[in-house]
Amino acid sequence: MSTVSRFSMNPFRGHGTMRVHLHGFPEGEISGATAVFVSVCELGFFPPVVNAPFIGAARMLVGNIAPHDDGTIDVLVTVEWDSDLTIGLEVLVVDD
User: Count of CB atoms within 10 A of residue 75's CB?
Assistant: First the structure.
């Protein structure tokens, strides 16, 4: 039976097209053959919640996702905005 794990990555700031290197997953969780799904959203401050996901005016896209045998993941993220925004990534890992 498959298991699904969800990881909320640390927020970061940026705009344009960025190659984001994700690490810090539990040992053995990620390999080059792992099925990985990533979503992106803008994060904002809406008291009392800090880094709350919301849909702003900027379009945000996840392009390529590449898991590696060393337990890391590279993700191509595009933020169509002229200045840095606070960005959050959610990662789903499916293990067969």
Answer: 21
pLDDT tens per residue, range 28-46: 999 999 999 999 999 999 9
Please give the domain boundaries of the chain with CATH numbers for all domains: 3-95 (2.60.40)
What predicted TM-score, i.e. pTM, was given to this entire model? 0.91
Q: How far apart are CA 46 and CA 25, in angstroms?
A: 29
Find tokens 């909320």 and name the residue: 8
Query: What would the two tokens of residue 42 be?
Result: 């803008």
Question: Region 69-75: what's the mean pLDDT?
Answer: 97
Residue whose tokens read 């293990």 = 95
Cα dihedral value 68, 66, 74, 22, nearest 10: -60
